[in-house]
Amino acid sequence: MERRKFITRSSLATLTGILGIDIVFGNLLPEAYIPLAIQETDPFKLFNLDKDMLVLNDKPWNIEAQAHVLDDKVTPNSAMFIRNNGKIPEHIDFENWTLTLEGESVTTKKIFTLSELKSKFKHYTYQLTLECGGNGRSEFNPPAKGNQWTIGAVSSAKWTGIRLKDVLAEVGLKPNAVYIGYHAADTHLSGDPSKEPISRGVPLEKALQEETILAFKMNGEDIPLTHGYPLRLIAGGYPASASGKWLNRISVRNIVHDGEKMTGSSYKVPKNPVAPGTTVKEEDMRIIESMPVKSLVTYPKSGATLSINKQLTIRGHAWAGELNVSKVEYSIDFGSTWSSCALEKEVNRFAWQHFSAQIQFPQKGYYEVWAKATDSDGLSQPMLVPGWNPKGYLNNACHRIAVKVV
Ligand SMILES: Nc1nc2c(c(=O)[nH]1)N[C@H]1C(S)=C(S)[C@@H](COP(=O)(O)O)O[C@H]1N2
Ligand SMILES: [Mo]
Q1: CA distances from residue 157 to 96, 301, 395 in whole angstroms, order as listed
Q2: Cα(243)–Cα(200) distance, rounded to whole angstroms?
Q3: Which of 29-38, 204-213, 252-261 is predicted least confidently?
Q4: Out of 1-15, 120-134, 142-156, 226-240, which region has the weakest mean confidence (pLDDT)?
Q5: Are 164 and 180 spatial neighbours (Cβ–Cβ below 8 Å)?
Q6: Is the Cβ–Cβ distance between 108 and 171 less than 8 Å?
Q7: Does ligand 1 lie within 6 Å of residue 186's CB atom?
Q8: Ligand 1 pocket member 201 (CB < 6 A)
Q9: Is the keyword Oxidoreductase assigned to this protein (predicted)?
Q10: Is the CB of residue 330 less than 8 Å from the CB of residue 359?
């Protein structure tokens, strides 16, 4: 009789990590057997999602929040949008996971194990806002190809990890270093192992900021598999595509990183405004860096019915890429007049800020509450969809909710 092959210790740990609970008798699991709970195809169970999350795509998974799901000051795992360009890596051996630092502008190429990274460098926790560059794409006309995000491809969770700058100091940078690029363990949808689904990066100045971290925890727990377990680059304030999940290699470059989705028109917008539908040449585009000012009304839920006898307290969050938000205003008369909201300071740089306001409606009827944030450079959100661009990025138009006052 053939000897039964038992599952290895590290893959058992991965399965336990995915399930979030101990597998009793896990040592008796046959090697190629996938527990039923992981074969689950219902994304709400698979990712433990809030019931009001919206699934845009299943292959790959792309899932967004609705505004009211994002009401918490710190985004819980269940409300975090999911954006995958390729296939989630299936076999994560976290005990043998390594991060390689290499590239033409690194002084010494080095390979670190996860435990080396965790023990060698100091840990920091920051709340960091990550918004997909394509959030709001569904409103552009003519429409842009890609995920038709409405408003929910944004999150602001607490991330714990080590500073990328500390790791870069350890390996040393050559004077010609200008950019870092990430590489990760997810695989291309075509199944071609020579292709990467995405390999983006950030300019060296961004890589050296204190808040740019290599994270291994999200909201105090191991990062959920779909959000990049066991290691993720986090660059708050930049389009979330710069924050590489399942990170296994960082390349220090002497040129702007030219990995997958750094070239062509990916994550780029025209340098100058163009008429809707224009074809724009690559040299007339710029790479998106700091995201524009934006806000969301997270309470009440759009469509709420309220009593005329009571004041309504609205609340939400505002963020402005690498800048601060200096004010948030609301309007109940379709943008004719604006009143100011109370605005809290950010808990740290690149975390979103909370606002609230008390509204007394003048009479019964239908209203819309519009919110408008202004950044520390004085730029405000547009009331309508801003500059059209070929890929439908950076729609930071005012968020609007409907309310019925009875
Ligand atoms: N390795 C890897 N990193 C990635 C991606 C990916 O597909 N693979 N998607 C990027 C994009 S486009 C976005 S918007 C964010 C989404 O992060 P989330 O799914 O944790 O919300 O991850 C970024 N990092
Ligand atoms: Mo994205």
Answers
A1: 27, 21, 22
A2: 8
A3: 29-38
A4: 1-15
A5: yes
A6: yes
A7: yes
A8: no
A9: yes
A10: yes
Measure 35 CA to ligand 2 centroid, in angstroms.
Answer: 31
Percent of the chain with pLDDT over 70: 97
On the CB side of 150, CA atoms within 13 Å amount to: 13
Residue 243 Cβ < 6 Å to ligand 1? yes
**Residue 132 Cα to ligand 2 middle (Å):** 4
What is the CATH code for 294-405? 2.60.40.650
Q: Report residues near ion ligand 2: CB below 5 Å.
A: 83, 132, 241
Q: Residues with Cβ < 8 Å from 148, sequence gap 6 or more? A: 56, 137, 138
Q: How far is CA 394 from CA 57, 64, 236, 381, in A?
A: 21, 16, 16, 11
pLDDT category at 157 given cuts 50, 70, 90 is: very high
Work out the number of other CB atoms within 10 angstroms of the CB of residue 310. 10
Identify the DSSP state of 168: H
Token pair listed for 81:
């949008």
Which residue ranges make up each domain of the chain?
1-40, 94-287, 294-405
State whether the beta carbon of 157 lies less than 6 angstroms from ligand 1: no
Cα separation, 38 vs 42, whole angstroms: 10
CA gap 142, 102 in Å, rounded: 42
Residue 254 main-chain phi, psi, to 5 deg: -100, 5
Is-contact 200 259, C-beta < 8 A? Answer: yes
Distance of alpha carbon 331 from alpha carbon 110, whole angstroms: 55
CA of residue 83 to ligand 2 center, whole Å: 6
pLDDT higher than 80, residue 3: no
Nearest ligand to the CA of 154 is 1
Which atom of ligand 1 sits closest to the CA of residue 247?
1
Residues in the chain: 406
Closest CA to 201 of 168, 160, 170, 229: 168
Q: Is the pTM for the entire model greater than 0.85?
A: yes
**Closest ligand, as measured to the CA of 60:** 1
CATH class, 94-287 region? alpha beta
153 Cβ neighbours under 8 A, 6+ residues apart: 64, 65, 81, 83, 131, 132, 134, 135, 147, 240
205: left (phi over 0), alpha (psi -120 to 50) or beta: alpha
